[in-house]
Design a protein that fits this description.
- It is a single chain.
- The protein is an alpha/beta fold.
- It contains 14 helices and 10 strands.
- The protein has 2 domains: about 100 residues, no CATH class; about 290 residues, Spore Coat Polysaccharide Biosynthesis Protein SpsA, Chain A (Alpha-Beta Complex).
- Helix 6 crosses helix 12 and helix 8 packs across helix 10.
Length: about 425
């Protein structure tokens, strides 16, 4: 027990939960401080092209364009590009659904909208984005917009951005000529009722990770790139609610050598030392409907996470410099930083079971259960704090305990201890004996 690896992992999880909570508090303070500052002087706002990559998304097209139509921004400086590709038959295509929106509302403030069709089945999302970038360059020529002032944004089909997000983004790019990228972080609590219990838990956990890990990490890099502190940190971007200065992005394009572009793009920008900023408004979205879709999504994320060569190539496209040995070492550390915690979480439960069997004691399992409970309580606290900052829809955060019940029961004998600690009654549950 004293030398148990599972014991060390459990204590590490507890310590990490405290650290994540502290970082989330700092980020929410940053949000509270920045949200009231909404620009009302629209005369200096730059032109913005919003790209919507769509594939097999016909059922949600109307809801997506309704959300985009609610964004506050000067109409003469906003253009929406829906990037579609060939789809696998069976019902209306995304291209047809977008065209119906364009034809059915000629006076709608969502316009001008243009559909860019790839003409073939896309091998990755970056193919659609790059086709839209070529069209964005033509729009700049048609409207006499300088590419140096253009801002390019990307939203997904499930994106429901806050109405003041574009105002914040446009103001930030106008005020800071060195700003190259900006990220609006996601809140995954939309349409939660349609998810399975496991995916409801995942929605809450992904939202907590967004505020406990991803956004604080980006905030640290933001302060470093502005010269306020020194760091070797870097961060990835998320594929929706991301914005870029047009000139550099149009020349470099989105990376096509990885299954997803956003993770590679974020590391390339930050490894190149380009200035990024974290938005104080959010993109409300969803998690996959089924666990199988989530597993497939996670697998794709891990493949992209290990695409070190494509990250270095994209960095060179952005700044034209070869990567030094120090850059490669830094990138290796960044990849390991995200991969090792996931590996540790994957080993925590089986190691606790093995230790309990070897030691003929339930203490390792009980400690593992306590660590998981501690982490869930930390995330629950962050979500409750989030509700005090934002008007977040969805169920009460306290229901996380009931939704976590199937997951806890699947963990085996230690579930009784954890369920008792969280106050959830389970018939027939037995407390492991020491």
């Amino acid at each position: 027990m004293r030398n148990s690896v599972s014991c060390a992992l459990s204590l590490t999880v507890m310590a990490a939960a405290v650290g994540k909570t502290v970082r989330a508090e700092k980020f929410l303070a940053y949000v509270r401080q920045g949200r009231p500052a909404t620009a009302e002087d629209w005369s200096r706002l730059p032109p913005v092209v919003v790209i919507l990559p769509l594939l097999d998304e016909a059922p949600v097209i109307d809801a997506l364009f309704s959300a985009i139509g609610k964004l506050r921004y000067p109409r003469d400086r906003l253009y929406v590009l829906a990037a579609t590709a060939e789809e696998a038959g069976g019902g209306p295509s995304s291209r047809e659904a977008v065209q119906r929106v364009i034809d059915g509302a000629p006076d709608d403030p969502r316009r001008p909208v243009r559909c860019v069709h790839l003409g073939r089945k896309s091998t990755c999302k970056a193919d659609q984005l790059n086709a839209a970038l070529a069209e964005a360059r033509r729009i700049c020529r048609e409207r006499s917009w300088p590419e140096t002032s253009l801002v390019v944004g990307v939203f997904d089909a499930d994106s429901r951005p806050e109405s003041d997000l574009l105002i914040e983004v446009g103001s930030a790019f106008a005020q800071d000529p060195d700003l190259e990228a900006m990220q609006a972080y996601p809140v995954y609590l939309d349409d939660l009722e349609a998810r399975t219990p496991q995916m409801k838990v995942e929605a809450l956990r992904q939202t907590a990770r967004s505020f406990c890990v991803e956004a604080p990490r980006a905030l640290r890099y933001q302060r470093a790139s502005a010269g306020l502190r020194s760091t070797v940190d870097a961060h990835y971007l998320i594929g929706h609610g991301q914005f870029f200065r047009g000139a550099r992005l149009i020349d470099a394009g989105f990376p096509t050598g990885a299954p997803i572009d956003d993770l590679v793009q974020g590391f390339a920008y930050t490894l190149a030392g380009l200035r990024t900023r974290t938005a104080v408004h959010f993109d409300h979205c969803t998690v996959p409907l089924r666990t199988t879709d989530f597993v497939r999504q996670t697998r794709t994320w891990f493949v992209a996470q290990c695409s070190a060569g494509e990250m270095i190539r994209q960095r060179r496209r952005l700044d034209g410099r070869r990567a030094s040995t120090g850059t490669w070492l830094r990138l290796g550390w960044l990849i390991a930083r995200d991969a090792v915690p996931w590996l540790g979480r994957g080993l925590e439960v089986p190691l606790a079971v093995a230790d309990s069997w070897r030691l003929r004691s339930s203490r390792p399992m009980a400690l593992c259960a306590a660590a998981l409970w501690f982490e869930w309580q930390s995330e629950r606290y962050v979500l409750q704090r989030l509700r005090t900052v934002l008007d977040v829809g969805g169920p009460e955060v306290s229901s996380v305990r009931a939704m976590a019940r199937p997951t806890l029961k699947a963990l085996g004998p230690m579930s009784a201890v954890c369920l008792r600690l969280t106050g959830v009654e389970v018939k027939g549950g037995k407390t492991p004996r020491d």
